[in-house]
């Protein structure tokens, strides 16, 4: 299979695995020598400068019970990758990366990914489930930790992956309605800041705002407008009036328009008052004023899932509590942070 030899004795033999170089001056981390490379006399000093005084070289003996790290990754990659995922054609340093083929919602089958990693020999790290990804983003990586593993292990991983563990769901919804509420905005006392905010957020997901209006804090007027908008849009947002003031009517109006509210509010801060409901398949959301102030709130956490057409349940909403408190960093890097990651 392979054996350890002094670099001086390795001349004329083929390398059993990729050899990595990390060179901070050149800002390089990558393959210096590929698996299968025929070692020459002039390579001895270079190998030593990479700290390799011994190397593993391939024997001619064909070990039928073992699988090389490159072959394990190549064999398992199609079992890992689901819809809208592509992966490296060739492993590098025994590893294959997985990428999104489209913008959309990343879905990871967490339990099965954990089951694979519990086998200890394979390593399958992924990004978090339910995050928005862009075309070309890396979403997962696979390699076995040792140079070789037993064939049975590959079979065991395949058994866990009876269907793929990673996919990207493209955004389905296309048109949005925005109803801005608030007497102060309706009466022109202050300028509306919600429409421009929602427009820039939704544009990121390819969503167009097709219908919009600014209404006073009047439950009946808001209810009537919700009913009209529900005939025209794929998703509806009603902003402001979401908390406990006497003129906060948004959630009441949503209910009176016949929308099934999943849960009033949620355990994410900021964005506690963000409320999700459904009218048939159309999501209807109350958006609290906190979204005007903070770069990331519950709105941003649920938005990609709603736009991918998911029906969010009350049980799932409760799961967001751990990690649901923003770190309120001076420089916000959401979504590349722990906020809202389940
Ligand atoms: N006792 C409690 N107080 C508060 C609670 C609570 O649960 N108990 N929740 C807090 C949370 S969380 C939020 S968020 C805020 C405000 O929620 P609302 O969505 O009801 O916001 P409004 O009262 O309508 O407005 C608050 C503030 O924001 C300005 N605003 C609203 N819409 C616009 C707009 N389109 N353009 C510009 N500015 C807007 C509004 O003028 C007010 O200044 O309640 C907490 N309190
Ligand atoms: O609903 Mo408030 O949005 O938590 O800050």
Automatic annotation (TrEMBL):
Coiled coil segments of this chain: none
The MoaB/Mog domain covers which part of the protein? Answer: 177-308
Which SUPFAM superfamilies does the UniProt entry name for this protein? Molybdenum cofactor biosynthesis proteins
> Which Gene3D superfamilies does its entry note?
MoaB/Mog-like domain
- According to the record, the signal peptide region is none
InterPro entries found in the cross-reference section: MoaB/Mog-like_dom_sf, MoaB/Mog_dom, MoeA-like
Q: Which reactions is this enzyme annotated as catalysing?
A: adenylyl-molybdopterin + molybdate = Mo-molybdopterin + AMP + H(+)
Look up the record and name the pathway of this protein.
Cofactor biosynthesis; molybdopterin biosynthesis
- Biological processes, Gene Ontology terms: Mo-molybdopterin cofactor biosynthetic process
What does this gene product do?
Answer: Catalyzes the insertion of molybdate into adenylated molybdopterin with the concomitant release of AMP.
Similarity comment: Belongs to the MoeA family.
* Protein known as: Molybdopterin molybdenumtransferase
């Amino acid at each position: 299979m392979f054996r350890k030899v002094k670099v001086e004795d390795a001349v004329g033999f083929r390398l059993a695995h990729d050899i990595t170089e990390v060179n901070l001056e050149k800002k390089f981390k990558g393959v210096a020598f590929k698996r299968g490379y025929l070692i020459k006399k002039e390579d001895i000093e270079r190998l030593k400068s990479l700290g390799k005084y011994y190397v593993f070289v391939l024997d001619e003996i064909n070990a039928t019970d073992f699988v090389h790290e490159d072959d394990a990754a190549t064999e398992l990659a199609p079992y890992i990758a689901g819809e809208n995922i592509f992966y490296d054609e060739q492993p590098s340093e025994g590893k294959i990366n997985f990428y999104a083929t489209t913008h959309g919602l990343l879905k990871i089958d967490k339990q099965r990914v954990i089951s694979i990693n519990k086998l200890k020999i394979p390593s399958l790290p992924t990004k978090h489930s339910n995050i928005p990804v862009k075309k070309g983003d890396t979403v997962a990586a696979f390699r076995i930790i040792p140079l070789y593993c037993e064939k049975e292990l590959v079979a065991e991983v395949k058994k866990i992956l009876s269907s793929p563990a990673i996919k990207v769901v493209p955004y389905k919804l296309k048109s949005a309605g925005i109803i801005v509420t608030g007497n102060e905005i309706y009466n022109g006392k202050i300028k509306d800041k919600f429409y421009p905010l929602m427009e820039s957020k939704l544009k990121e997901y390819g969503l167009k705002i097709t219908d919009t209006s600014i209404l006073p804090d009047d439950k009946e007027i808001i209810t009537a407008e919700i009913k009209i908008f529900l005939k025209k849009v794929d998703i509806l947002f009603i902003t402001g009036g979401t908390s406990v003031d006497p003129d906060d009517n948004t959630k009441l109006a949503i209910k009176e328009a016949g929308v099934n509210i999943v849960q009033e509010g949620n355990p994410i801060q900021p964005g506690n008052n963000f409320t999700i409901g459904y009218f048939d398949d159309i999501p209807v959301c109350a958006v609290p004023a906190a979204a005007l102030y903070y770069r990331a709130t519950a709105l941003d956490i649920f938005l990609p899932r709603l736009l991918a057409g998911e029906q969010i349940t009350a049980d799932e909403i409760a799961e967001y509590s751990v990690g649901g408190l923003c770190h309120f960093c001076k420089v916000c890097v959401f979504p590349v942070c722990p906020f809202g990651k389940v």
